[in-house]
Write a structure and sequence with these properties.
The chain has helices at residues 14-53, 70-83, 85-90, 98-119; strands at residues 120-124, 133-136, 157-160, 166-171. With 192 residues, it is mainly α.
Length: 192
């Protein structure tokens, strides 16, 4: 089998843009879940302090909280409304040229950015430049920094910052009315 490197795309195609948007969607959901679990942890820490002061009792197993899909479905609907994300990912792109796909990718990118910036405030986790050498001290937040490569021993760790990371600092999704069907992310349109 012969592989020709000339057949590989040299620019970002719609599939990659769609994958990037889906990654952003899943990251937003992940950070929302992380935020709610950190709030839960704070509550648990307060309970631990008060329980340590009183007589020690048997520790309870961690209860897993079932998350509602409403916020995820609401975000998906907003990405469809602003960027036509679902239309884009459900379209068969094989019949279109790379230029057509690239033009559509620009619309999806701009709309997605608009929707995300309207309802989420993002902050970089690390302030250093990517590709710079950094040292992580003992006790660094392992939830915010993922170590890769040859991870041995204990902190402090010195390595190259590959990605600054992102966290959501504020979520301002619109409030939903009573009885709103969040499963309906894009109604059918009929022009009269």
């Amino acid at each position: 089998m012969n592989l020709s490197l000339a057949t590989f795309p040299t620019s970002i195609d719609m599939l990659h843009v769609g994958l990037a948007i889906l990654i952003l969607l899943f990251m937003a959901l992940f950070f929302k879940k992380q935020r709610s679990s950190s709030d839960h942890k704070l509550g648990m820490q307060k309970q631990d302090v008060s329980s340590q002061a009183s007589v020690k009792t048997q520790s309870k197993p961690v209860q897993l909280k079932e998350s509602s899909p409403d916020a995820a479905l609401q975000l998906l609907a907003l990405l469809q409304q602003e960027a036509r994300l679902i239309d884009f990912t459900q379209e068969d792109l094989s019949a279109y040229s790379d230029a057509d796909v690239g033009a559509a990718a620009r619309v999806v990118h701009e709309g997605s950015k608009k929707a995300l910036n309207a309802y989420f405030t993002f902050a970089a986790i690390r302030s250093e430049d990517e590709e710079s050498r950094i040292t992580l001290p003992q006790g660094f937040n392992a939830a915010e920094v993922r170590l890769t490569g040859n991870v041995v021993g204990e902190a402090p760790f010195t390595g190259t910052l590959i990605h600054k990371g992102w966290k959501v600092t504020e979520v301002t999704l619109p409030k939903l009315t009573e009885g709103h069907d969040t499963l309906l992310v894009a109604p059918a349109e009929v022009e009269l």
